[in-house]
Amino acid sequence: MPVTANIFSSDFSEKPYWWNDWHPHDASLAEVPKEVDVAIVGAGYAGLTCALELRKAGLDVVVLEADVPGSGASTVSGGQTSGGANIGKKPTGRSLDSAAASGREVALLQEAAEGYRIFERLVQEHQIDCLYRRSGRIVAAWTHEHLDAWKIKLEKLNHYTGADGHLMSPDEMRSELDSSIYAGGVLLKHAGQVHPSLFFAGLLKAARSLGVTVCSHAGVKHIVRQDGGFRLDTARGPVKAKRVVIATNGYTGAFMPDLQRRVIPVTSHQIATEELPDDLRNSLIPNDRVVAETKRVSNYYRMSPDGKRMLFGGRARFFKMDRRESASVLHAQLVARFPQLRDIKVAYSWGGFVGLTFDFLPHLNMTEGIYYALGCNGSGVTMMTYLGYKTAHLIIDGQAVETSAFGRPLPSNPLYRGKPWFMPLLGTYYQVRDDLEKRRDRP
């Protein structure tokens, strides 16, 4: 795709906007220990939360990171938080649209809501200054059919998760969001926003303060059973562990080929605008909600914590793009929603891998005696934090993974071996379907 040169500010950066306040780094370079109770692979939200809880229980824990802590998706997410809004969402534009909730569905919703409570408790318990607040979330309906489906879903969310949501009237929608592109919307009051990089930094500080060893540049090459436990061969030497947890999500590598072929890495791109004039700052999302769409290939956005910029994200394309190319796509999508931003420049462009699964649900389970917590499906802040927490407590309490609603094996597909070759075709198909349905939508 051609890059629109005049959309970039003079100080345009390919550094994530969030890294202005905290960026991934590691000056300590802790040594890889010889032996631990639990070795966790992946220093993201899930890995650090799991380590934190295990250490509180008195276990010796090492977290092994291939790069430096926070270099994956955890510090570059959209910073939206909710408890169950995305559970069961499939790329059909609709979700959970039957009136009766199954026992499985109820359990998933209730546990997702518990995950949100865990997230809030961790922020409070460890006094993490991450600009978190319950600002509310707007679910922006792409079509009237999507809006009808959400009317049914909303009843379930309110009943089983305490989402405190309601269908907005056209007048209320206009007062909440200065865009005319949507068929309507739902406001979920039990949802919010967080600075993802500062939240990660707080988890990292808390884990290390309790004695968790976090090792940078210690990518795992092999894991083998040994002496009733496991030996992990890393780029910085081996470590023996009684138990192993894989928490690599969209960055799951070939050292676990069976898991790699069950998690689909898809890049979620984001941009931040230049600082906006006061009239735009105050009018776009006047009550400072976070926004997520109901499209198959959805966009999500919010104002920056200081209220000066629009942060806008989505799956810009499903093939390889550089940061300027993805910024051009997202800028066009932004202007389609807010024509008043046509002359506003892009100041930042970045991205990170989201871990998708074939059933569009997060999972925690075991394979070959190894625990895993994978598949955020776009809800990384609260869901990956919760999966790490839950996995730790399953280990501590000696419970079976099936006691969790998410404790089912990751599904696979015989045509997928870890390289998402089909995503350009499938993603483009979904985008075309979104466009066609929008054009055919009833007035």
Automatic annotation (TrEMBL):
Sequence ranges assigned to domain FAD dependent oxidoreductase in this UniProt record: 37-394
Entry protein name: FAD-dependent oxidoreductase
Family matches, as InterPro entries: FAD-dep_OxRdtase, FAD/NAD-bd_sf
Lineage: Bacteria, Pseudomonadati, Pseudomonadota, Betaproteobacteria, Burkholderiales
GO MF, one annotated term: oxidoreductase activity
Pfam families the UniProt entry points to: DAO (PF01266)
Keyword entries, A-Z: Oxidoreductase
Residue span of region Disordered: 73-96
Domain of life: Bacteria
Any GO CC annotation of this UniProt entry: cytoplasm
